[in-house]
Amino acid sequence: MNFWDFLGSRHQQLLADAFQHASAVFQCMVVATLLGVLIGVVTYRSEWAGNLATLSTSTILTIPALAMIGLLIPIVGLGVPPTVTALTLYGLLPIVRNAIVGLRGVDPALVDAAKGIGMSRPARLLRVELPLAWPPILTGIRVSTQMLMGIAAIAAYASGPGLGNEIFRGIASLGSKNALNQVLAGTLGIIVLALLFDAAYVLLGRLTIPRGIRV
């Protein structure tokens, strides 16, 4: 059976795996974004706190994905819980780092002007600082998403959802007639999803970042 025949015969399963893969990455990115921006907001004013936040999240990223999921299985079990936990932790570093850099890069004169017209600190953060820091934060989100697309495939090791199941089934049955097709289908599916997500982020940036800031 050639690759195109394989896709035709397994397209429903592949589409289901692709949807689960995209859904897992999207949901984990939402959580990672909220946590990462919150950590950035809390730590960016202090040099040591910002460095500690960056060091802590970068340390998490040095743990091999297979080892991370293996360590989580005895704690949270198999399936979705270790997948969500691992992906969320791995997604933090680029968002935290870019949130800190973006917030520190806001022109102090603009913050002082907002303070001068009576804005409270939360109002300055929400209406001045975070909007101006949004471009680097969005870049961090894009980088995290691309990383998680690949890492999510490892979740199949813990019976997690996604296209990694096709890859693992293909590797486990090497030598069979469809082994290579399974690995190729899973890999190409992840690449296509990564490109679609990145295109969505480009569109989001065009819709949410004023042209003057983009320039």
From TrEMBL:
<feature type="transmembrane region" description="Helical">
    <location>
        <begin position="56"/>
        <end position="80"/>
    </location>
</feature>
<dbReference type="InterPro" id="IPR000515">
    <property type="entry name" value="MetI-like"/>
</dbReference>
<feature type="domain" description="ABC transmembrane type-1">
    <location>
        <begin position="18"/>
        <end position="201"/>
    </location>
</feature>
<dbReference type="Pfam" id="PF00528">
    <property type="entry name" value="BPD_transp_1"/>
</dbReference>
<feature type="transmembrane region" description="Helical">
    <location>
        <begin position="24"/>
        <end position="44"/>
    </location>
</feature>
<dbReference type="InterPro" id="IPR051204">
    <property type="entry name" value="ABC_transp_perm/SBD"/>
</dbReference>
<feature type="transmembrane region" description="Helical">
    <location>
        <begin position="183"/>
        <end position="204"/>
    </location>
</feature>
<keyword id="KW-0813">Transport</keyword>
<protein>
    <submittedName>
        <fullName>ABC transporter permease</fullName>
    </submittedName>
</protein>
<comment type="similarity">
    <text>Belongs to the binding-protein-dependent transport system permease family.</text>
</comment>
<keyword id="KW-0812">Transmembrane</keyword>
<keyword id="KW-0472">Membrane</keyword>
<keyword id="KW-1133">Transmembrane helix</keyword>
<dbReference type="InterPro" id="IPR035906">
    <property type="entry name" value="MetI-like_sf"/>
</dbReference>
